[in-house]
Amino acid sequence: MANSCLQLSGFLLGSLGWVSILIATATNDWVLLCKYSFNTCKKMDELGAKGPWADCVISTGLYHCVSLTQILELPAYIQTTRALMVTASILGLPAVGILLMSMPCINLGNDPQSTKNKRAILGGVLLLLVAICGLVSTIWFPIGAHQEQALMSFGFSLYAGWVGTVFCLLGGSILTCSSDSSPPSARPYQENNHFYYSKQGGGPNAGRLHHQPRQERPRLRGGRRTEIQLRRRHAHSSRLNELTVY
């Protein structure tokens, strides 16, 4: 029961983290750029927002963006952020699908529990990869933007990326640590305050609990024929004793 709750918690955290990564990837309010204060830059129409895909200008009643289409002229931190965020968004889809098939409430045919645990571990590893991609992107981008222009504050897209990174990291860690891929036959279980192993797994008490020695009746040497001869000899000796007494 506890293992199922942990897997469900990891799945929910990973799904929310992946959605946050998608929001951060699709939007451009990563950092706010301005040389002066916020109100001064807004009045002078110099408040800008920068993201992996566009540069935007923010003013009263105006939000205008210019797409960054010069791929070869873009700095390295923008190209790296694009590649890592797209990779994280793509990896999140199979991760969520695999984790959905590993949930205890969903059965695909006659899959054993060990197969579901392996799926949960694989989904957790994919979530950890998503978290690593998001972590590198959300740290490198504001540093590169600050070195290039005057950075004033962070935008909501960057916060969404940080939240998604933390959720994916927690969900992946919970899934990889709480799932056991070993088959149940190889693990000891308890019944009536005694630990023992199944026949497939074996164990120190397997011989005592599963292979009790049978007590066999002693057999006379020579089989059935020898037993009949001994009975005849015993009857003959009894008759001789009776004749001797008379």
From TrEMBL:
**Location(s), subcellular:** Cell junction, Tight junction; Cell membrane
Q: Which residues cross the membrane?
A: 83-108, 120-143, 155-177
Q: Which domain of life is it from?
A: Eukaryota
InterPro entries, per this entry? Claudin, Claudin11, PMP22/EMP/MP20/Claudin
Record-level Gene Ontology MF annotations = structural molecule activity
Q: Assembly and interactions?
A: Interacts with tetraspanin-3/TSPAN3. Interacts with OCLN.
Annotated protein name in UniProt: Claudin-11
What is the source species? Answer: Oryzias javanicus (Javanese ricefish)
The opening ranks of the lineage are: Eukaryota, Metazoa, Chordata, Craniata, Vertebrata
